[in-house]
Amino acid sequence: MSEDPKTLTDLRRALSDLESRQAAGGTGFFARLDAGDAEETSGTGSEGAVGSTESAEPGPGSARSAQGVPGAGPSAGEPAGTVPDEPFADSPELAEAYAKAKKTALNMLAMRDHSSTELREKLLRRDIDPAVVDRLITKLERSNLLDDTQFAQRFAKAQRESRKLSRSALRRQLVKKGIDEETIAGVVEEVDGEEDLAREVAEKKARSTRGLAHEIRERRILGMLARRGFSSTICLKVTREVLAET
């Protein structure tokens, strides 16, 4: 007797859902399973459940029983806090788009760090379905391949070292990257040595303007510091001290 594919699929989903609820300490119907059922399902992932279903002959009421199990459906059996590697099983077109988007995103991340917003915008500019992009971003975040806090910390450190940016300039750059305000505040608060960094910038500019009139040197140093985002108080203080020394 041939098995109804729909019946078999429903039963697989129901069994996967059963395992997930048992692992989470579910109550009600799942808590009343006898010891034999518990032994068969404990320590078995969703793949094991599928395998046992394939070797079993579903009875006449299998489809109805599967439909009656809470949570049976397209997402049944998914562990809490995860996104399946191959979503959109009911839509080949979206599944194919997801696979291509995933490959593109991983290539981008291999080249350099991205914030979640930055990566999302790049994928959307490639005309990828927004639902696919949202699902993929969630998957990458839960897999720790996207972490805005770590991205912000590394980005701030790199910009501080290479471009000598002030705290306020770092804040503006992080806003452009789509980092939330709370994360930005925490990252910027960790940045210290503001006046020392301004002095380093001023001294370099002072060396390159040596021989020019004092007023010109002062204007250029102040302009450089202002463009890096240093406060007016630090700009004036450091400029006067550096010019007095050189």
From TrEMBL:
InterPro entries assigned to the protein according to its UniProt record, in alphabetical order: RecX_HTH_1st, RecX_HTH_2nd, RecX_HTH_3rd, Regulatory_RecX, WH-like_DNA-bd_sf
GO cellular component, one term: cytoplasm
A GO BP annotation: regulation of DNA repair
Transmembrane segments: none
Bias (Basic and acidic residues) ranges: 1-20
Domain RecX first three-helical per the UniProt entry, residue ranges: 101-140
Signal peptide: none
Location of the RecX second three-helical domain: 147-185
Pfam families, per the entry: RecX_HTH1, RecX_HTH2, RecX_HTH3
Record HAMAP family: RecX
Protein task: Modulates RecA activity.
Name of the protein in its database record: Regulatory protein RecX
Natural source organism: Brevibacterium casei S18
Native organism taxonomy: Bacteria, Bacillati, Actinomycetota, Actinomycetes, Micrococcales
Gene it is expressed from: recX
